Amino acid sequence: MLANKRILLIIGGGIAAYKSLELIRRLQDQGAEVVPVLTQAGEAFVTPLSVSALAGQAVHRDLFDLTAEAEMGHIQLSRSADLLVVAPATADLMAKMANGHANDLASTLLLATDTPVLLAPAMNVRMWEHPATQRNLATLRADGVACVGPDEGSMACGEFGPGRLAEPEAIVQAILAKLADGPLKGRRILLTSGPTHEPIDPVRYIANRSSGAQGTALARALRDLGAEVVFVTGPASVAPPDGVQTVPVETAQQMADAVAAALPADAAVFAAAVADWRVTSASDRKLKKSKDGLPVMEFAENPDILKTVAHLDKGRPGLVVGFAAETNDVVENATAKRLRKGCDWIVANDVSPATGIMGGRENAVTLISEDGAESWPRMDKDAVARKLADRIAQALAAAG
Ligand code: C5P
């Protein structure tokens, strides 16, 4: 619930601005007060009248609005909010924010505050993928700005790809997560999950049986304790939770790149079942049956993401957690793995088929740290996730 919370909603100019009207409604359903701000470009897409009628209060539009200055002033406006939400956040607004511009009401409010900010970007796919926007995004993330979406799909401009505004419900969930008051509030946690797919040709790939269920449950549990979760997931068979920053990837190399881009973080948890090998030169055409015999495939080793992050000299997260799926001698193998990988904890489990754990609902894990091995009773994956999230919160609190 968002009772007694005041959300300053900055509506940027873009076709997705119409969804901000629905967002206002949903925030009010949660009990929030929505203070609306409309940029000049935003006014081309939604009218001030619709925005203020829905919000139940005047919409702020001008930097030099004398009445507002006399009553409250733009500085006061942004500081009295619990959260600033920019939806849609256009490429232009992001560029202004990243560079500290303050030449209209929206950019001035964003610069004049130390209130947390959540962006819901929406723009054309090429604009989103442009190095300038990605640079600005990295700057904003490093400044502590959170982001929900953009989603991938067909766009109003007729193109397809990432750039669609996150659905209002997902934005509400991200707001709930951002304002959640838990022991992980203010902590940024990086989490990998799911399998990876390593292409053989455009239609075939090498994969494994990981469903991503344990990693996804952990993303939810960390979010519910108030963490800002960056969720880097391979093609899992369960949907990513709302209210986390989902970065979908396919291959191990893409996962490694996404992890590098998401750092720094207070903690990093590597629950993904990363493929150890990739096909050296995946064909860009579908391989055909041939009279000349069977195709010969050469393999190369994938980067070990956990090991790389655990060994970082600069920017190593304060807590690095790996997983170990073993079929025999679980504790011995996982203890050795903790040392080999250089991580702080290993969450080990027995995935031999008889346990029914891989792809199943339950898990039985042993937590291995420098203090030794601690076996937890068999419980469902959500319960394992909650227990692990609690332990992560305790460890970060103890480290200060
Ligand atoms: O070496 P192994 O695959 O058993 O190690 C498992 C742990 O290492 C998991 O936490 C997994 O996410 C991580 N890992 C990784 N990158 C790899 C292989 C494994 O991050 N290439």
Describe this structure in words.
By secondary structure, this protein is an alpha/beta fold. It is globular. It is 34% helix and 23% strand. It has an 8-stranded mixed β-sheet, with helices on both faces. The protein is built from 14 helices and 21 strands. It has 2 domains: 1-179, Rossmann fold; 183-400, Rossmann fold (3-Layer(aba) Sandwich), CATH 3.40.50.10300. The protein has helices at 19-29, 48-55, 66-71, 73-79, 91-99, 105-111, 125-129, 131-142, 168-179, 213-224, 252-262, 305-310, 330-341, 381-399, and strands at 6-11, 33-38, 83-89, 117-121, 146-147, 151-154, 160-164, 188-193, 198-199, 205-206, 228-233, 245-248, 267-270, 277-279, 299-301, 319-326, 345-350, 362-363, 365-369, 372-375, 379-380. The model has no long low-confidence stretch (mean pLDDT 92). The site of cytidine-5'-monophosphate has 13 residues, from helix 12 and strand 16.
Question: Which helices and strands occur, and which strands form pairs?
Answer:
Layout: E1 6-11, H1 19-29, E2 33-38, H2 48-55, H3 66-71, H4 73-79, E3 83-89, H5 91-99, H6 105-111, E4 117-121, H7 125-129, H8 131-142, E5 146-147, E6 151-154, E7 160-164, H9 168-179, E8 188-193, E9 198-199, E10 205-206, H10 213-224, E11 228-233, E12 245-248, H11 252-262, E13 267-270, E14 277-279, E15 299-301, H12 305-310, E16 319-326, H13 330-341, E17 345-350, E18 362-363, E19 365-369, E20 372-375, E21 379-380, H14 381-399
Parallel strand pairs: 1-2, 1-3, 3-4, 4-5, 8-11, 8-13, 11-12, 13-16, 16-17
Antiparallel strand pairs: 6-7, 9-10, 14-15, 17-19, 18-21, 19-20
Helix pairs in contact: 1-2, 1-9, 4-6, 5-8, 10-14
